[in-house]
Amino acid sequence: MSSRRVLWTLALVLFMTGPALAAPAKPSKAPPKLAGRVFVTADRVKDVARESLARQFQNAAPQAVLARRQNGHWVGTVVAFFKKPAVQGPIILWIFDKADKQALKDNEPVQAVTVDAKASDTFVHETDFDPDQGYNKDHTYIIRVGQIIAKKEKVYATGEVKLLK
């Protein structure tokens, strides 16, 4: 076989397989049952990669429970999975006392925590539930994670945490 024919064959093979080899892999998404949900864990999350978070929380209970620390605070890591990536800018955690129906109706959280974050479809933040900020033992709190977009609240995920004695 002539060297010219070998070169053309090689070029054709590279042309045919090149795009397939060079095509970027689609990013894997969290399982659909996690999208739109917030989880809280007493443990610090070491690996914040989406795939690792999905493995960690795929069988987690829908409501988390936190025990009070010696300093009287409850500390937990909030992990949220969004259906679509948030836009670049601050992420807000709105935390409501589930027992306070009027505050829920009036959209008045116990606390609103603003965190600078990159655009992503997951969110991880360690949160201090301080009794001096209005948190009480044996209460369940609803956590909404979202952003203010065009002067409106855009909630990406929700979940609950119960604070024990």
Question: Could you please describe the fold and organization of this structure?
Answer:
- Helices cover 21% and strands 39% of the residues.
- The protein has 165 residues and is of the alpha+beta class.
- It has a single domain (37-163), classed as Immunoglobulin-like (Sandwich).
- The strands form two sheets. The protein has a five-stranded mixed beta sheet with strand order 2-8-7-4-5. A three-stranded antiparallel beta sheet has the order 1-3-6, with helices on one face.
Order of helices and strands: HEHEEEHEEEE
Per CATH, the architecture is Sandwich
- Given as residue ranges, the uncertain stretches (5+ residues, pLDDT < 50) are 10-28
Approximately what portion of the residues adopt beta-strand conformation?
Answer: 35-45%
Tally the helices: 3
Helix content: 10-25%
The N- and C-terminal alpha carbons lie at a distance of 82 Å
Query: Strand count, sense and closure of the main sheet?
Result: 5 strands, mixed
| Outline type | globular
Total beta strand runs: 8
Gyration radius, rounded: 23 Å
What is the CATH class?
Mainly Beta
Mean pLDDT: 84
Structural class: alpha+beta
Describe how the helices and strands are arranged:
Elements: H1 3-22, E1 37-41, H2 50-57, E2 63-66, E3 74-81, E4 89-97, H3 101-106, E5 111-117, E6 122-129, E7 139-149, E8 152-163
Parallel strand pairs: 2-8
Antiparallel strand pairs: 1-3, 3-6, 4-5, 4-7, 7-8
